[in-house]
Amino acid sequence: MVPWLICILGAECTGKTTLALNLAEQFSGLLVPEVLREFCDTHGRNPRCDEQQTIVQSQLARENAALTKARREGLTHVFCDTCPLLTALYSEYYFSDSSLLAQGHDLHTSYALTLLLAPDLPWVADGAQRDGVTVQAAIHARLLHELQDGRHPCHQVSGQGVGRLQTAIDAVHRFML
Known about the structure:
Order of helices and strands: EHEHHEHHEHEH
CATH topology: Rossmann fold
């Protein structure tokens, strides 16, 4: 069986990491952590424009490694804490560089399902990686725009706590039917 590759997508501070961890546990699946978060933690800063492609490639490499491991172990789900499409949109937002957008969409076709998280959680500062509710709203609007054409199976997730998790679980179950 080919494992389901599921993308947890959202602007900053929308609970991607928490939801991805919870879903991986709920479905006994694998988690692909966010490369951008680790980059910011390691370097103490956001990546520069010339580092965006490296972030994309690193995220993709992690996803491919997780899929290989899932196949080997007979697991059915791999949950990705964000994706190259989000890196492309941040690159466009911060650097006016849309060169990664087509690649981001091409790579996004590998996800069986995208769970798009609403920016309805309280915003919390997180060092170099988070810029505030204005950026959060702008990126969320861009995500909605990029996903509106239906090229990528997508379900919007909102709410808080257990309700947010249950909405995501239900979406994954519905998609699997």
